[in-house]
Amino acid sequence: MSSNIQFISLPSGSSINPSYGLLNEPFVVSGQNLTQATGVLFVDKFQNEIASTFSAASDTTINGNVPLLDASLGKHEVRVQNELGYTKLYFDPLVPAQTAEPRRLIGHTVTDITDHLGINSAIPTVSPNNTHGYEIATTSVSAIHPSSTFIISCELSLENDFWGAAVVALFKDNETSPRRVWNYSLIGPQMGHMAVLSFVATAGTTSSQTWRVRLGRSDSSLSTVYLNRNSTQTNPYGLDVARSYMTVTEIEAQGVSY
Predict the structure, then answer these.
(1) 30 and 150 co-located in one domain
(2) Claim to verify: residue 113 and residue 67 sit in the same structural domain
(3) Rounded CA gap, 88 and 256, in Å?
(4) How far is residue 112's CA from residue 246's CA, in Å, rounded to a whole number?
(5) Are residues 45 and 65 in the same domain?
(6) N or C: which end of the chain has fewer CB within 10 A?
(7) In 3-state terms, what secondary structure has residue 62?
(8) Do 214 and 170 belong to one domain?
(9) pTM given for the model
(10) pLDDT tens, 142-187?
(11) Are residues 31 and 120 part of one domain?
(12) Where are the beta strands (DSSP E) in the chain?
């Protein structure tokens, strides 16, 4: 009967090579009694066990592939185990290298809006065009590359003399239809509102292009919209500190030589 008894030995690992790597990369465990291993586990610092695929090439060698590991948790313990227990080695998972370079800011144009205005012209809900409202800012730019991205942004200091809404419309060059329209609720005198808007577009050309911002009231309200002022003071706070601005920022395109 002694011929039917199977003796099991505890696996003994002496090294793992390489001791660092990325997902699915191969590794080799060297040691003794490795054909009797029933599992190869990668264990993080919270004792989460992640099983890897492996095969015992011989009693002294195991071949495996790195499972999905959280590299932010640092060094992982590698357990080569069977019914008797396990042997411990250590492995450093790597973070995959970034495949695309970061996109750089390569152009930035700022236009100060210093006028103190009261605007009672409406920008209608239906078919607004480049004659409605009042043009408060223009910025002309030329892209370094036609594939660049333009980010057009505005920050407008607004108020009104009664409950109503302000409408902001963005136009390009002499286009009659707006590229984007924003509606901002305003709730009355001495209740200012900072309208912040942003629009993203591909440059499309290296020729000069002009972006225009028009401001007006909504066609459903009768209140006057004030820019950089209030209903009673044309230059509140003094020294022209109440002001707004418009910016056009150029971001490089990925995979393009500049």
Answers:
(1) no
(2) no
(3) 48
(4) 7
(5) yes
(6) N
(7) strand
(8) yes
(9) 0.62
(10) 999 999 999 999 999 999 988 889 999 999 999 999 999 999 888 8
(11) no
(12) 12-17, 20-21, 26-32, 39-43, 49-51, 54-58, 61-65, 76-82, 85-93, 105-113, 117-119, 122-123, 134-141, 149-160, 164-172, 180-186, 193-202, 209-218, 225-227, 244-251
